[in-house]
Amino acid sequence: MTLIKSISGIRGTIGGAPAENLTPIDAVKFAAAYGSWLKEYSGKNKLKVVIGRDARLSGEMIQNLVVYTLVGLGIDVVDLGLSTTPTVEIAVPIEEADGGIILTASHNPKQWNALKLLNEKGEFLDAAQGAIILELAEKEAFEFSEVDDLGKITRNDAYMDIHVDEVLNLALIDAETIKKAGFKVVVDGVNSTGGIAIPKLLAALGVEVVELYCDPTGHFPHNPEPLKEHLGDICKLVVEEKADFGIVVDPDVDRLAFITDQGEMFGEEYTLVACADYVLGKTKGDTVSNLSSSRALRDITEKHGRKYEAAAVGEVNVVTKMKEIGAVIGGEGNGGIIYPESHYGRDALVGTAMFLMLMAERGGSVQQLRDNYPSYFMSKKKIALTPDLDVDGILRSMADKYADEDISTIDGVKIDFPENWVHLRKSNTEPIIRIYTEAKSQSEADELADRIIKEIRSVAGID
């Protein structure tokens, strides 16, 4: 059982002992720390916070704990109930709220949950703000309101429909163009809120929908991370239904993956590539992704005559770099699309609409589209950590070993070889070292990852 406190929020497994897992006590303490920080940060006497959750089994319990903790601090709450991460993000500024909390452990299995924290723009907090909240939680430096000053709760379950409308109103999205294409699409909503939001969007765009695991019970039918090894059912169903493609989202709907008409993975890394290809064909501007994302985005960006830049891993880092260079689209290679004309957050609804527009205008099959993009293959592996390991020392040793190569240390260690690369970093959300590699073939990417893992184990003295 695990509790991970980081600048991006608090994430853990349900049950067990406080301070070791995500128990009710930990949920209340961290919500109180966020609310206390928000009162100090905003300088206002009366605050409003938007709350939403994915469909995981512990969601209602954690939501009630968080909502009533904020009420106890004198903060008004707009409770969206079942929602998505990007839906909460767009709701914050619409509601003119002072912040937001999304209750989701994203791609983690059902025993996990988390509090993900937003500012008044509906964007994730920066490192300095997150550090203050962690300190407040540690000190339990809270002062709750007296009875006449308690917050009030407003429940609003309309925001997924509002979110769909916001996507339809984007200048680059034309519903009639998509409707005329007559698409048939299979949707895997992993029995969470994507099973509500994505079919709503597709219906509004005139797309025929075949639903798979779209009942938001929180009983995930497979590992909720949208990777090839977890998606056999939808790959089979796309072919059986003779669908144009399949759509897969994670439980909180900020990651997006496609299945080709041949029942093959389009490639999570290529979600951003395709969406950027569409946007750059309509808008002059640059792109950003993180260090662990595919070189294919760089290639497509340069094909459009624009500039690509890399940021440290983490949505807040990508957003910061996007704002710095004025990027017109960015995101992460895990299927996260960030389109500033909508909002600065990963959004599977926006990505889905862009992909439909790209396919409607270009014609052909999804498999043909994929075959036309630069061909790179990634390996994503990990090494479990134990408390006695000096992870920073291990990463320094690997950087020293490859000092003659092109090295970046802004986030872990990335080693760029002429024909491939490897990125090593300590996860912010799990007790692991992530090892990402990319090469011109899957076997080469896997072999590079296995070689680096052996070298790390040797440096760390792991059997």
Automatic annotation (TrEMBL):
Signal peptide: none
Domain Alpha-D-phosphohexomutase alpha/beta/alpha intervals: 8-142, 164-263, 270-374
Entry EC number(s): 5.4.2.10
A single Gene Ontology CC term: cytosol
One Pfam family, short name: PGM_PMM_II
Domain of life of the organism encoding this protein: Bacteria
GO molecular function: magnesium ion binding; phosphoglucosamine mutase activity; phosphomannomutase activity
Entry-linked PANTHER family: PHOSPHOGLUCOMUTASE (ALPHA-D-GLUCOSE-1,6-BISPHOSPHATE-DEPENDENT) (PTHR42946:SF1), PHOSPHOHEXOSE MUTASE (PTHR42946)
Family, as annotated: Belongs to the phosphohexose mutase family.
Record protein name field: Phosphoglucosamine mutase
Source species of the chain: Poritiphilus flavus
